[in-house]
Design goal:
alpha/beta; Rossmann fold; 7-stranded mixed beta sheet; two-stranded antiparallel ribbon; 9 strands; 27% strand; globular
């Protein structure tokens, strides 16, 4: 089984640029509102790293709120899309598995939306995140909920970290996407090696989803689908 997120997300860049904001209730009415609610109330002047910036939705929102944003993505096509969308942020094409080309203690906040499940080993990535965050800096990330992946896909051992593949049917493309499912205890262990855990969030959808996507609304109100982790560096 090949795991090539760069190639896959190069192919998905146009879809993310034009379709995801409007057509995906899991993004617009579920994950994104919960992630934004987890951020500090005042972002004016805060330096934020958008780790796995995709086509720039978070970078756009954070820039509008006064943050100084740097976005990183492994896909050059996603970076191009983000640069077209957001004029006031800096974007880099870089793999989060590698050492980051950023200075120590530079950022107040790192936000990473639905990205880290494409990374097999979190230790090098989290070590770099801790290095570039300021003291008492905030890390907020979302991933697939391990319960969702374990029940949706054929998995024989919940406690294994397993490479899974899903078929995404988007308005303009159908593509196979691979990612890693890891148990909850591994998510917590890898996080607390480097950060102080502040909260775990199992989000629920906005009420307005009921009017436009009732089936998804009922499912997300009774089944965990994504998981949000909020943590901090030491003082």
């Amino acid at each position: 089984m090949k795991h090539e997120p760069k190639a896959v997300f190069d192919r998905l860049a146009t879809t993310y640029q034009s379709d995801i904001d409007q057509t995906s209730p899991y993004n617009a009415l579920y994950e994104r509102p919960a992630m934004m609610a987890a951020l500090p109330n005042c972002l004016e002047g805060k330096r934020v790293l958008d780790a796995g910036c995709s086509a720039g939705w978070y970078a756009s929102q954070l820039t509008d709120l006064g943050a100084v944003v740097t976005g990183i993505d492994v896909s050059p096509e996603m970076v191009n899309a983000a640069e077209e969308r957001v004029g006031g942020a800096t974007f880099l094409c870089h793999d989060l598995k590698e050492e980051l080309p950023l200075l120590d203690h530079t950022f107040d906040i790192i936000i990473s939306s639905l990205t880290l499940h494409y990374v097999e080993e979190w230790t090098p990535t989290f070590s770099e995140f801790r290095r570039i965050l300021k003291p008492n800096g905030t890390l907020i990330f979302s991933v697939h909920h391990p319960f969702m992946d374990f029940t949706k896909f054929e998995s024989t051992n919940y406690f294994d970290t397993t490479l899974l593949t899903d078929t995404w049917e988007k308005p303009s493309i159908t593509v196979d996407v691979s990612f890693y499912r890891r148990p909850m205890q591994q998510i917590i262990h890898d996080t607390t090696q480097f950060f102080r855990l502040e909260s775990l969030i199992e989000p629920q959808p906005l009420e307005e989803m009921k009017e436009t996507h009732e089936r998804a609304y009922q499912y997300l109100n009774t089944h965990p689908h994504f998981l949000i982790v909020k943590a901090r560096t030491s003082l």
